[in-house]
From TrEMBL:
Residues 1-22 form the DWNN domain. One of its GO terms (molecular function) is zinc ion binding. InterPro entries: DWNN_domain. This is DWNN domain-containing protein. It comes from Capitella teleta.
């Protein structure tokens, strides 16, 4: 069945086969313009060329080269270029209690023992909390704005 009307409704679970017809406009073709060079199907692609290929299944290369290119493409998102991203808003370093950097990139090395781990106060209503006198106080929770609060029930 061929659909010619754009407003025609298709039945549920029906298959669709699309046809593409090139638009031929001979008046706008530039005969002196650049042309695409034909790709020789007999030429084997190198691993470096395969690393940028979109579809390795149809590429003309050996299986070993395809596997090597696939391994490169699968780990490309985890490469060194993607390691350094800015921490999200509200993230606070557990070492120096300041934002803007990750824990493993903290330049502040405390002398003596490390600072205690910080618990986040997510999910607890502020009406149930009161401001902490000291961040090292027992039960202190770090809020999104960087303040430390203690649950009223803990006192």
């Amino acid at each position: 069945m061929e659909f010619t009307d754009d407003n025609e409704v298709m039945k549920n679970q029906s298959s669709v086969i699309l046809k593409r017809f090139p638009l031929i406009d001979k008046e706008n073709i530039d005969p002196t313009g650049p042309r695409r060079e034909a790709v020789d199907p007999n030429v084997r692609l190198s691993v470096e060329q395969l690393k940028n290929a979109g579809d390795l299944a149809v590429a003309n290369a050996s299986e070993e080269d395809k596997v090597a290119a696939m391994m490169h493409q699968s780990t490309e998102a985890f490469g060194p270029a993607n390691w350094e991203r800015a921490p999200p808003f509200g993230y606070i370093c557990n070492i120096c209690r300041k934002g803007g950097h990750w824990n493993h990139r903290c330049w502040h090395k405390p002398k003596g023992k490390d600072m205690p781990k910080v618990r986040r106060g997510a999910g607890i209503p502020r009406s149930q909390l009161e401001l902490a006198k000291d961040p090292a106080e027992s039960g202190a929770l770090l809020m999104d704005d960087g303040t430390f609060m203690v649950p009223k029930l803990a006192k």
